Amino acid sequence: MDETVQNMTVETEETAAECPAAPESLADVVAETVTIEQGGAQTIKAETVHVNQGGAQTIEAETVQVNQGGIAHAEGKFITVQEGGIALAIGENLTVTDGGVAVAIAENVKMTDSVAVFVAANHIGGDNIKIFFDARAAVIFGVVIGIVAGLFSRFFGRKA
């Protein structure tokens, strides 16, 4: 079953009353292919998901494509973002162009004119990218914070 959500309306062969993704119940969408145009959904499970100027809270799919949209949590084999953002992306291949990712966990990450807060990947490539923390920097940051916290508790902690 293919689902298309456009301006909060559903375009399928089913009537809106029979469709599990009717505008009144856009919490969960389960289908083979889901396309969201200027709309949104809470949870999507599908083979392929296209989001254009829309958003979703959670997406689990083989292929996720986002164009000028936002997703809180995306899991998939191939995740592509153009002029949009994802808070948490987990997958094998992540491509971001003119967008942003808060946390990216993937085998391969390719970014162009994009920003990420934390990236854990076997291969990171691209042009004009800004990554605040990679896996190595996060470990070093954690060790330094641990040492500083230990010293503070040792010197400024309560004495019994």
What does this structure look like?
The protein is mainly beta. It has one domain. 14% of the residues lie in helices and 64% in strands. The protein has one helix and nine strands. Strands 1, 2, 3, 4, 5, 6, 7, 8 and 9 form a nine-stranded mixed β-sheet that branches. A hairpin with a 2-residue loop joins strand 1 and strand 2. It starts with a strand and ends with a helix.
Task: Give a quick precis of the structure.
The chain is mostly beta strands. It contains one helix and nine strands, in the order E-E-E-E-E-E-E-E-E-H.
The domain tally reads 1
Parts with pLDDT < 50 across at least 5 consecutive residues: 6-25
Give me the number of helical elements. Answer: 1
**Mean pLDDT value:** 84
Largest sheet: 9 strands, mixed
Q: Which range best describes the helical content: under 10%, 10-25%, 25-40%, 40-55%, 55-70% or over 70%?
A: 10-25%
**Measured distance between first and last alpha carbons:** 67 Å
What distinguishing features does this structure have?
9 strands; mainly beta; 14% helix; 1 helix; 160 residues; 9-stranded mixed beta sheet
Question: What is the fold's blueprint, element by element?
Answer:
Blueprint: E1 2-6, E2 9-10, E3 28-30, E4 33-37, E5 40-52, E6 55-67, E7 70-82, E8 85-97, E9 100-134, H1 135-156
Parallel strand pairs: 1-4, 3-5, 4-5, 5-6, 6-7, 7-8, 8-9
Antiparallel strand pairs: 1-2
